[in-house]
Amino acid sequence: MRLTGKTVVLGVTGGIAAYKSVEVVSRLRKKGAAVRVIMTENAAKLVAPLTFETLSNGPVSVDTFAREGAFDVQHITLAKAADVFVVAPATANILAKMAWGLADDMLSTTLLATKAPVLVAPAMNTGMWTAEATQRNCEILRERGVRFVGPEGGFLACGDEGAGRMSEPAAIVEAIEAILCPKRDLEGLRVMVTAGATRERLDPVRFLSNDSSGKMGFAIAEAAKERGAETLLVCGVTTAEAPADVPLVRVESTQELYEAVTGRAGDMDVIIQAAAPADYRFAQRFPEKLKKQSGAPLTLELVENPDIAAAVGKNKRSSQTLVGFAAETEHLRENAKAKLKKKNLDLIVANDVTQPGAGFNVDTNIAALITEEGIEERPLQSKRALAEDILDKVVELRKRAKAE
User: Fold this and answer.
1) Measured in whole angstroms, how far is the alpha carbon of residue 355 from the centre of its chain?
2) Domain 190-403, CATH
3) Which of 178, 3, 11, 4 is nearest to 86 (CA)?
4) Model confidence, pTM
5) Is 158 marked active-site?
6) How far apart are CA 38 and CA 78, in angstroms?
């Protein structure tokens, strides 16, 4: 009964996945939580409010102007009662309302009034999920601290295949527990996380780089901080928003990243290298903009950059845990296993960046967690969920090493 004494306010919107939210209520009740349900009018057309009333053992709110008591302002009462506010399913419509502060029904009005942590479980057609407007709304919500679980990939109710399926009830409840009963299993540890891309300048206006946004590294750093670690972020160029409460060291080139990481590695207990440093730099950097040569071909020489992971692995202490990433386009597991051994890593996170929903500039990932003992596959999930999986594995590896 981990959630005894906690109140979960659950908002259910008009997506076909609303039927799954019935199980969310059931699971929460079995864990001891009090559950108050708010339904939109469209949700009530898909699942009868009586179903949620029976399982939650309480009234379901639909009408903004309904009152439980003579002096009760219900949306304020519920907003204050919540230890966590969950929206599952969260349609594109409710995400847009939340992002722009609209309050035109019971659910959106209560969401605007609450000060509780908010968790959303998106569910919609792939086209709607990937639409620029929806993604921008999600960015706004993330910047405000709203947490996401899913969406997952797979077969959708409309017959399409892709991202947009609501996470399973067990995963949603697990995310709720993580908010209400956060893990503190990294307390006392110093964790350094790298993120983003590096840039190798050719001249003042041109550079060599890659598409890394920093989202994966930022998710890991944020999760490590919440689990009690003394966390440091070292990152190159990023397009994502860095966690506000994690100390940050900014670099641009791979050489700068190398110096920042190796100079601090000796003080760290855990080093997770999620950055995507450029493997090569230009042999010559021009001080002024390079001009066209009247149609003549241009030949540029590239030289190798230092291998940061290998350098850290070479000087690894027995008490350290090193995690690397392998972004591949072919022979994923074979290449990752070779890197694991060559760079003296404890864990390598391998992903095929050609797969939809994985790799750079997306909020999801598909990965294999590879150690000397074996491979654990992780399906399409949010980068935050993968971050938690990676940290769980780090904790497991450190416990095993200590026992040995």
Assistant:
1) 18
2) 3.40.50.10300
3) 11
4) 0.67
5) yes
6) 9
